[in-house]
Amino acid sequence: PPAWDRAARPPPSPLQPPGLPLAPCRSFSNNKIQVDLDESSGVATMKFKSPPVNSLSLEFLTEFSISLEKLENDRACRGVIITSALPKIFSSGLDITEMCGKSMEHYAEFWRAVQEMWLRIYGSNMVTVAAVNGSSPAGGCLIALSCDYRIMAENPKFSIGLNEAQLGIVAPFWFKETFVNVVGHRTAESSLQLGSLHSAPEAHRLGLVDELVPEEKLMEKAAAVMAQWLALPDHARQLTKTMMRKAVVDRLVTHREEDIKNFVTFISKESIQKSLRTYMEMLKKKKR
Fold it and tell me: Which Pfam families does the UniProt entry name for this protein (predicted)?
């Protein structure tokens, strides 16, 4: 992983007493993700920066997991706010090109990276707050669901949901369990079967996101929520989180190879490849 770089410190503000050092902000960036850690608050901000839509490619997933691991191992970091550097999109979800027309070995490597991303964020000891500043279908929704708290920009044009069924794909059990644990069984069941994408107001009504705020207040609200969560002793919060999430995490860890095998078998089927090709053609037509 890339080394931490000390960001250039801004000049002291007029309100700052002379000679008092500013708390350092440490930053690191790779191709797809920018991370800034404010040492005074212990809060990192992770921004997705993979145009045009922050799709979860193998490279993106790898960088995401490395960035999370780096923050997890940094004693100065207690929480991370996850958001997008791109306007109108949080993340479009799994990169379909990684699942179409590739080798079985590639599918296995890709799915292992998807698993790793979820295990790192869902099982994180840090406080994780999703600041959803745009649409967030499928894998993008999974990232938000895996956080401790979700705040979404109050824009009816933005949508969020696990819409895999629309692509002819079945969400695996750990996607499903994460969803059920947030919105309840009935809402998750109907939403997954229909591959529903919910508008921001509907997502809030269903409990898929915890709060809606105006776009310009999103990061301010995320920081306030983070401060509220960090006011508690870390060990009590971490042990409670582990207790609540352990069963699902353990189930994937135990059945990880079987889950990869199931994915590879499923995604390699010609009928599924045909569905994905059709969907990609549809996306191309939309862009024209």
Answer: ECH_1 (PF00378)
Annotation marks residue 42 as catalytic: no
Please calculate the CA angle 140-70-67 and round it to the nearest 5 degrees.
30
Place of tokens 């409670």: 240
Tens of each residue's pLDDT in the chain, 288 residues: 433 333 333 333 334 444 444 557 788 777 899 999 999 999 999 999 999 999 999 999 999 999 999 999 999 999 999 999 999 999 999 999 999 989 999 999 999 999 999 999 999 999 999 999 999 999 999 999 999 999 999 999 999 999 999 888 889 999 999 999 999 999 999 999 999 999 999 999 999 999 999 999 999 999 999 999 999 999 999 999 999 999 999 999 999 999 999 999 999 999 889 988 888 888 778 766
List the catalytic residue out of 94, 162, 197, 218.
94
d(CA 243, CA 203): 26
Structure tokens at 246: 């352990």
Verify whether residue 181 is a known catalytic residue.
no
Residue in 123, 164, 167, 276 annotated catalytic: 164
Does residue 54 have an active-site annotation? no
Tracing tokens 């960036």 back to the chain, one arrives at 29
Name the amino acid, one letter, at 40: S
Tokens of 154: 């109050």
Backbone angles phi, psi at 160, to 5 degrees: -150, 145
Burial class (CB in 10 A: 0-12, 13-18, 19+), 146: buried
H or E element in which residue 26 lies: strand 25-29
Domains of the chain: 26-217+225-287 (3.90.226.10)
Catalytic residue among 79, 163, 206, 212: 163
DSSP-derived 3-state class of residue 162: coil
